[in-house]
Amino acid sequence: MGDLDGRVALITGAGRGIGAATARRLAAKGARVLVNDRDAAEAASTVDAILAAGGEATALVYDLTRPDAADVLVDAALAEAGGLDILVNNAGYVWNGAIQNHSDEQWQAMLDMHAGVPFRILRAWQPWLRDTANAERVAHGGARCRKVVNISSVSGTTGAATQIAYSAGKAAVVGITKTLAKEWGRFNVTVNSVAFGHIDTRLTQTYAGVPPSITVGERAFRVGLSEEQAAAVRAATPLGRTGSPEDAAGAIVLFCLPESDFVTGQVLTCSGGA
Q1: Are 126 and 68 in contact (CB under 8 A)?
Q2: Dihedral sign, CA of 41, 43, 46, 49?
Q3: Is the pLDDT of residue 25 over 70?
Q4: How far apart are CA 77 and CA 33, in angstroms?
Q5: Which of 53, 102, 156, 251 could form a disulfide bond with 270, CB atoms 3.0-4.6 angstroms apart?
């Protein structure tokens, strides 16, 4: 028996990196995993890995930057699995630059991706959550404990040069987390956040020479750290290394397990001590 047998988990941005590692870890704990990503091939890759390991998973391919995506995603998740017990708001990307180089479009894109998208998904989930918790109280004397884990960053908790919009969005995640922990306690839902330091993903890849880029929609975004920057990060980290997606997934899973059923409104820093 797994710790999460009979539970349904939805992870956004689960086609690669932290999201994919979290999906695999939750499936290994027994959860049925709904893998959301805008990239169908990457979502399918995560699902295939879970199925090959004996887990249960389904891909839900939606671009969360679309205005109607949150409602469509939540409806699809509930229709697919009949319920939802764990929600990990992980999807995101970076668009960096010093403040004088930030456009209004850039500012709004980062706020919308990192604060607006989780807000809309959580809002879409609330009616089902309310009705289900109330019905469970009538039938069983109490509601099942459900879990929200919102992904923040040390950029949002301590700031980061050239990331003013990203940092503002990740700081907003902390406010969302602490507010919903107070609102949703009556539904027996814990709402927590993990603030990551440097985790080795495509957004933080090390490069020499020309910086790499990723494509979101029709726009390319520069990502990564130079070899010198990466070395400085390692030197400033007490554990002496950067984190892996598996390290990050471990921190998220802590908030998904029954052992954390009385922990809510908290922000856990996962940064190797940096």
Answers
A1: no
A2: negative
A3: yes
A4: 10
A5: 251
Which residues of 120-204 form beta strands (DSSP E)? Answer: 146-153, 189-196
Residues designated as active site: 166
What are the extents of the domains in the chain? 8-202+244-270
Give the pLDDT score at 159. Answer: 94
The residue with greater pLDDT, 213 or 234, is 234
Question: Structure tokens of 4?
Answer: 């999460």
Superfamily of domain 8-202+244-270: NAD(P)-binding Rossmann-like Domain (3.40.50.720)
144 φ/ψ angles, rounded to the nearest 5 degrees: -60, 140
| pLDDT number for residue 72 | 98
Render pLDDT for 165-180 as a digit per residue (tens, 0 to 9): 999 999 999 999 999 9
- What burial letters (b/e) apply to 27-48, b meaning 16+ CB within 10 Å? bbbbbbbbbbbbeeebbbbbbe
